[in-house]
Specification:
- By secondary structure, the protein is α+β, with helices and mostly antiparallel strands.
- A hairpin with a 5-residue loop joins β3 and β4.
- It is elongated.
- The protein has 19 helices and 18 strands.
């Protein structure tokens, strides 16, 4: 039989009798057990509170934790507040008296502003006095026992930036930050284009010539933030704007623009997104200033660490159109024609070569041929520094060929120079290095160190884990090399948006997303770098203590001997990897072969001696 010890909750009551303090400790039931199912028996304790019966004890089990009590308390509070909150809101929708809340005069017509102080009713004079400046507010009038929509002429938006004799007025449909539409009169000048004048009013033109619709900056900023952070498409955003308006307010919004999506999709969103980028980075004023493409933590060190990978989610359909103009961003994404020319002229990886490791398939090798023909871009190949800051990217037209990584590697070598050391962490770094060795690319081998990301290393052979594991390569420290996988988890969610875009719009959106991702990484560096340094120092200390504890039981073995063992293991794996054989013997030196033969002879000698001793014991028994 299992006995369960249940906790009790106590109340301590302090009483004073005849000048003496006395404590009475009584049990207190849980707050949530007051509501039990009907049919359960209950009783009362000394304080007069209800105690659940045995049925409730059996159904609820042990007494709840502090979190459970707080949770039930909040739920009970909301149950009590739900009806009063609704009642208070409905009372404010009814006009109690025809008295202005500002001038205290009684009027036959009462108004209120939805965007100012909605609970205060005003007369018409006070409403005009409060809204004597250009605004995008909406009014309501008390009529037919309810507040309904009310609109009237608003002040003209005068052009105070420039004055001349060629000024003229023009009616516009202005969409505010909440997606509502307003009829406004705006003053323009023939000396300046209308689209430029609208930007001075913090309005974005829906068209370049003679715009009839203007969108407030706040609405487009919300769209840009939701796109980059929550992967919300323009279509979904327009539907959300409709849903955000209640069914009562939808009736009095003057929706002369029936389809907001058709306006936003006509280059307005992409142009505004690039406009925001230019305003946030001062590189548009001076070229030497920060443009958001460089990692601030990658100082001019002698060793640069980058991670390579490809994401086959970011495809583009061939039916999505052709390129109409040049892209807006000239950095992050490399020149695609230059990449295509290099891949077309590189014939070294077209013939399949035995990599000596696990079979690797990606892109066109795992995708159906008919489906692959319908795609103009099959993936995105890119790199990031050890701090997870995006570096260089470009589109793939085939599977993940080795020539793509070689092109990106040469690009990084040109940037770093011949004196700096480069370390590349790639899922198939073993195959890439073997490919370079076979084709005699000593210029790359001498300057570049190769490693496999820490989690991908477990999918390779033992030789690759010894030679290319980031824990075995000098200078990598605790860098795991999986930063590209974390980047793809963010960038891959834009695939449903970018697959239907033209080439230039697709690249511009992906660059904006990468810059936004890099901005998030940059904001975390101040906190993450000291934490990583502290963790590395602590791990080094613990590792040294654990190693010394293990070496205490081995006489004559010190750190130098352990390093020699590691070097010997690496040499053996290097020879095994160079032979390219998975099952063949190691290419041992004569001295090593002699040691192996001595070891085999010793094993046979021990087996023979044990057999001989066993036979002698049997003779004695007979």
């Amino acid at each position: 039989m299992v006995f369960t010890k249940k906790r009790k909750i106590y109340n301590v009551n302090v009483e004073y009798q005849r000048g003496k303090k006395r404590k009475n400790i009584v049990s207190r039931p849980w707050r949530g057990r007051a509501k039990i199912e009907q049919g359960h028996t209950s009783s009362t304790d000394t304080t007069g509170q209800s105690i659940p019966g045995p049925c409730a004890q059996e159904s609820l089990g042990d007494l709840p934790t502090q979190y459970d009590r707080r949770k039930v308390g909040r739920l009970e509070d909301w149950d009590e507040l739900r009806k009063p909150i609704l009642q208070a809101f409905l009372e404010e929708q009814v006009l109690m008296k025809n008295q202005c809340g500002q001038c205290q005069k009684e009027c036959a017509e009462m108004f209120r502003c939805v965007d100012c102080v909605q609970w205060q009713s005003l007369c018409k004079d006070c409403l005009h006095l409060r809204h004597g400046h250009p605004h995008l507010h909406m009014f309501e009038i008390w009529k037919n026992v309810s507040f309904i929509s009310y609109s009237e002429e608003t002040p003209v938006w005068h052009n105070y930036f420039h004055r001349c004799d060629s000024m003229y007025l023009k009616p516009l449909i202005v969409i505010d930050g909440k997606g509502r539409q307003h009829n406004r009169t705006v003053e323009f000048c023939k000396c300046e284009r209308e689209a430029v004048t609208l930007v001075r009013y913090r309005l974005w033109p829906a068209s370049t010539k003679f715009p009839r619709v203007a969108i407030h900056f706040d609405l487009l900023c919300w769209l840009n933030a939701l796109l980059l952070e929550s992967h919300v498409s323009v279509k979904s955003f327009c539907e959300a704007v409709k849903v955000s308006c209640s069914k009562h307010s939808q009736g009095y919004v003057h929706s002369q623009v029936q389809n907001l999506y058709r306006i936003l999709i006509l280059e307005s969103v992409s142009e505004f997104r690039h406009f925001l980028y230019k305003t946030e980075h001062a590189s548009s004023v001076a070229e030497n200033l920060d443009d958001g493409t460089e990692c601030p933590a990658c100082f001019e060190s002698t060793t640069k660490i980058y991670s390579f990978d490809a994401d086959f989610q970011l495809v583009r359909k061939a039916s999505s159109g052709t390129q109409w103009t040049e892209r807006k961003h000239s950095k992050v994404f490399l020149n695609q024609p230059e990449v295509d020319d290099f891949v077309q002229s590189y014939n070294a990886d077209k013939k399949k070569i035995d990599s000596g490791c696990s079979e690797f398939q990606a892109g066109s090798n795992i995708r159906a041929k008919n489906k692959n023909k319908k795609l103009s871009e099959t993936a995105v190949f890119g790199s990031a520094c050890r701090h997870e800051y995006p570096k260089y990217f470009f589109s793939l037209k085939h599977g993940e060929r080795l020539c793509y990584s070689i092109f990106l590697l040469q690009k990084l070598m040109e940037e770093c120079g011949s004196d700096d050391k480069i370390c590349i962490m790639y899922d198939i770094a073993c195959s890439l290095k073997r490919h370079l060795l076979i084709h005699g690319r000593t210029d790359i081998i001498q300057q570049v160190e190769f490693a496999i990301p820490v989690f991908h290393a477990y999918g390779h052979k033992m030789e690759c884990q010894v030679l290319y594991s980031p824990r075995r390569v000098n200078g990598l420290g605790l860098t795991d090399g999986e930063c590209m996988e974390r980047l793809w988890s963010y960038l891959g969610k834009f695939s449903k948006i970018t697959k239907e875009m033209t080439p230039e719009n697709r690249i511009d959106l992906l660059v904006d997303c990468l810059l936004h991702y890099g901005r998030r990484i940059r904001n975390k560096l101040v906190k993450s770098l000291p934490e990583k340094l502290e963790r590395a120092i602590d791990m080094e200390k613990k590792s040294v203590e654990a190693l010394n504890k293990q070496l205490e039981s081995y006489t004559g073995v010190d750190d130098e001997v352990v390093r020699k063992w590691l070097e010997d293991e690496k040499d053996v794996c290097s020879r095994q990897s160079s032979t390219g054989s998975d099952n063949g013997p190691f290419d041992l030196t004569p001295e090593e072969q002699y040691c192996v033969a001595l070891d085999d002879m010793n094993v046979q000698r021990l087996a023979f001696s044990s057999m001989r001793s066993g036979n002698e014991r049997q003779k004695h028994r007979r």
